[in-house]
Amino acid sequence: MMIKSVHISRFKLLRDVTIHFSVDPERPLTVIRGENGSGKTSLLYAMLWGLYGMAGLTKVANIEAPRLTSTFCRAGSPVAVEVEIVFSHTDDMGTNSEFRLRRMVLETPQVEGPPRRSQDSLTLARLTPEGDKLVPAAEAWVERLVPLRLSELFFTNGDDIQKFISGRVYSHERQAKVHQAIRELLGIDQLTTAVGDLKNVHGGLKRRVSAESGKDAEELEEQCEALRQQITEQEQLRTATEGRKKSMETQQHEWERELAQLRGIGDLDELNAQISTLKGRIQACRAREDAALADMKSAFKGQPLSRAFTAAGLANGQAKLEELADRRVIPNTSLKVLQDRLEEEECICGSDLHPGTALRDHVVQLLEEQREHSDMAQRLTELRYSAAAFDLAAADVDAFAAKRQATLADYTAARDDLNRADVELKQAESKRSRIDDARVRTLTDELAAVGKKIAAGVLELGRIAERIAQYERQLEEREQELSKVTQKNRANQDLIIKRDVAEELRELAERVQRRLEDEYVKKVSTRLQEIFLSIVGAEPDAHLGVFKGVSITDKFDIVVESQNGTNLDTDYELNGASQRALTLAFIWSLMEVAAITAPRLIDTPLGMVSGGVKQRMVNTITHPPTGDEPPYQVILLLTRSEIMEVGDLLQQHAGAFTTISCSKDYPTDLVYDWLGEDSEQAEVRACACTHEQSCRICARHIDNAHGLAFQDIEVTV
Question: What is the share, in percent, of the chain residues with pLDDT greater than 90?
């Protein structure tokens, strides 16, 4: 989607404003210049309303019923508000079409309270040589192109741009924003929908197979479904519990940071550092504990343990079997010999064994006696060979003892270290709590309370994990029983094949979903680091540098690593310019990897940015695409001060310029009264002046300081 133009009618002070945007891939930048109060934010809001209606405004304005009309409008007089956006879009077949989107509403200001507003109307038309052709389901069409939940990626202002990295947003909310943006822009949600559909199909086929396999199978399927529901409920409970835990951890982090910022009170700094180190030691000890327990569990499942317990008995039994073999009791071969002699009718000694002879009757009697003992002899023979194949080497027996001793030593050492660290932590926290400062004591109490709640949350998560594991074991057992019953009752083979195919497709789709998400996150993370380090001018291996790298964690948090290996706090350890650089780097890297062609409009993005960082930032977010990069469109709403130092870059990359001014600024800031003294209300007007020009509409008293070339005309758009 590339926006070509927008016309705004009677939205706030934008009474009749038209702005054209650059769609030239070689000059993707559109610059809209405007000072504070000139209507830049109103322009942003108007475009959000045009695309999304009131939902787009309430999301950024944080109020339920934002007013669309100007406060100059008379109460009781209806005002027709309209926004028209012309844009182009290339579909999946490569066909590029032009569209006109128009949203209209009638709003009547009131003396008190919110204005009355009619139901707005939205129309979308495809522009063709034969005329406009209406597109049905306009809202859904727009939502597919630029989803409302991702609108802050496409349309944002400089103050809100840090939502993806700011610690002032709870960590789980911030992570959810990053995760959702990645899933949406990379199309992973569509695959998730497909996985859900395959799960439904698979479930339906399983129920049909069970229904045809009899009552037992149907009951087992109901039990399996109940267990799956319990697992789902527990997973939802785990998600909610993790969310509460993360919120408490965020609050804990805030309080710890506040406590750490207190200065000049005893040895608070030293205690804070000691407590931080001890917490790290405790985490490391717990990790060592878990590793030792895992090793012990593995050892208890191995052959060395079995041999250690059964070695004596096995050796005794093997000796007895060898004794039987030495006595030729086993293997039992006499039975075969007697059978062969009877068939030959001649004894091994040469005697006659024809039927009717006394010797033959004697051999038959011997054969019957041997048959009575043959089964036992056969089993003993097999057991002897099995025992001989079973290695009873002393080294294997000793292996378990050695493994047990080493693992137990590791576990004991980890427990001892943990206990010592825990005692030291309690002592340090006790010292900190005794510092005679009211706020410090309050924070200490709050940290202790929230620490207990977090610990309770950890325990609850452990219980939930145990319940999920228990339900999963039960589910596996029921599914195995169900499979046996289904096979026994010979359910419809065609249904069974369909069920198995659906299950294989579901598993394949889930594996593809996980793999794509992992690969895309790595690509975005890699590109994010490249862009951010380029903007801030950092070298990862620089000896005295600050930034070493940036990455997206498996929990979808954007973290910045310092040269000494610690993670920097994005609120307190990154300056304003670096914060904006980090967020812009994330948005740009995500757009590049997703190959999304969509507008990126940012209101006043260069606040708190200057010098080389400012130039590198503008160059990064406005340079034409290269190589396989998709075409894109960037719209920057800039003040004259923001334009300073980057004018040459704007001239090089911009394909369209517009300046907006508001009549209310005359005579304080504006030089000319272009609306006239008889006007009853202020309004915003646009002119075609570039960042290097001014005219009778936009000329301001400060223009000489910016070296602008004045044109003694009204350069209308």
Answer: 24
Pick 477 or 510 by higher pLDDT. Answer: 477
Contacts 24+ apart (CB under 8 A), 286-294: 286/414, 286/418, 288/410, 288/413, 288/414, 288/417, 289/411, 289/414, 289/415, 289/418, 291/410, 292/407, 292/408, 292/410, 292/411, 292/414, 293/411
CB atoms within 10 A of CB 378: 14
- The torsion defined by the Cα of 292, 296, 297 and 302, in degrees rounded to 10, comes to 140
pLDDT for the residue numbered 263: 47
Q: Bridge partners of 2?
A: 88
Rounded Cα distance, 545 and 537, in Å: 10
CB atoms inside a 10 Å sphere around CB 584: 22
Q: Which residue in 567, 568, 623, 565 sits closest to 592, CA to CA? A: 623
The model's pLDDT over 11-21, given as tens digits with 9 standing for 90+, comes to: 999 999 999 99
Who contacts 187 (Cβ-Cβ below 8 Å, separation ≥6)? 594
Question: What single string gives the DSSP state of each residue in 167-219?
Answer: TTS-HHHHHHHHHHHHHHHTTHHHHHHHHHHHHHHHHHHHHHHHHHT-HHHHH
Please give the average per-residue pLDDT across 46-54, as a whole number: 93
Q: What is the DSSP letter of 346?
A: B
- Given pLDDT bands bounded at 50, 70 and 90, which one contains residue 395? very low
Quick one: pLDDT at residue 543?
56
- Residue 171 confidence (pLDDT) above 60: no
Residue 313 has a CB neighbour count (10 Å cut-off) of 9
Strands (E), 469-595: 547-552, 558-562, 567-568
Residue 523 has pLDDT above 90, yes or no: no
In this prediction the pTM is 0.61
Cα 391 from Cα 607, distance rounded (Å): 76
pLDDT in tens, 483-509: 777 766 665 666 667 767 777 777 777
- Amino acid, single-letter form, for residue 315: A
Amino acid at position 63, single letter? I
- Contacts (Cβ under 8 Å, ≥6 apart) of 47: 6, 83, 85, 155, 601
The DSSP secondary-structure symbol of 703 reads G
Residues 192, 184 contacting (CB under 8 angstroms): no
Q: Which residues pair with 27 in a beta bridge?
A: 24
Which of 54, 56, 443 shows the shortest CA–CA distance to 275?
A: 443
CA distances from 258 to 246, 247, 299, 440, 596 (A): 18, 17, 47, 9, 41
How large is the greatest C-alpha to C-alpha distance in the chain, in angstroms? Answer: 147
Run of H or E including 96: strand 96-108
In b/e form, how buried is each residue of 225-253, taking b as 16+ CB within 10 angstroms? bebbebbeebeebbeebbbebbbbbbbbe
Residue 263 Cα distances to 232, 260, 266, 269, 444, angstroms: 49, 8, 8, 7, 15
| pLDDT tier at 3, thresholds 50, 70, 90 | very high
State the burial class of residue 260 (Cβ atoms within 10 Å of its Cβ: 0-12, 13-18, 19+): middle
Residue 440 confidence (pLDDT) above 60: yes
Q: At what angle do helices 493-536 and 188-212 cross, to 10 degrees?
A: 160
Phi-psi region at 133: left, alpha or beta (left = phi > 0; alpha = psi -120 to 50) = beta
Check residues 530 and 247 and name the one with the higher pLDDT: 530
